[in-house]
């Protein structure tokens, strides 16, 4: 009888412990969902509070894919200056989706299948960061931010299926945990119309602390092959950019090293390209050596077809993952035709900005952006 009472008491305590564990779990989830943000920092007692920003995603509850037009980015100015030009945003602003989603996702899936090694790679050291980002963006961000497009699913009680995320546009169900970093990047690339690059600091030597590209999914590069940039530091990646080493390298290195968990910044850039292709591995930049070769061989002048020429802009963001502390650089590409710019009334302003490429802090940008090739014909059209 005494033994039976002991068993009953032990059983009761087990139930109490289980109840306390469940209650604590619910309180943690509630804290992550509703607790106001504390000042953002990467040290001390506020580290946990900074991580809460990743769970306070503002939903776009009435989001309608078909009626949402791409945002219009008009970052050009009368004089071009090479600066970071950052603005603080929230993690809710990480991904922008519009009515080009279906066609863009179809193209991205095709590129991932046919040009895998050009668009996707992950060094072993970055695998934990890729997994961390995947589990957050698939399991938390997308269903919270875009509930009309993405829905978490739970299998039937008698099913062996795992929980997942249902893409209501494509009909696919995505796993909440990837089986590899490469599969994570593939799923991200096939469901989000943004490109993502993952960076970690170098650990030893004279370059210790400087950030290096360790993994990426980039379907829409603008004139560069990301696979060739893998394992490069920021300075090496931006080496061809006029003025980078003098004007941006030190400040960029400092900013990347000090960006705290919970903070996300955004910037935009612009260029003119003479192709509407989104996946462009080369041909949109020019060096002085290449320019001299063009002039020396008396080649036929490159044909610039206005109908295929676009203002190409990138909406870029940068943030730090809370657990692995890796940095995630993301960008979404937008294209606007020259006729669209004229119809909008921006033709003259854009033409002045094209002239202004050579009037700012880095005149060499006129060659780098190939303005010396397409500039006169594009300006004449915009001003006509």
TrEMBL record:
Lineage: superkingdom: Eukaryota
Pfam families found in the cross-reference section: HODM_asu-like
Keyword vocabulary terms for this entry: Membrane, Transmembrane, Transmembrane helix
Lineage: Eukaryota, Fungi, Dikarya, Ascomycota, Pezizomycotina
Matching InterPro entries: HODM_asu-like
Transmembrane segments: 6-25
Official protein name in the record: HRQ family protein 2
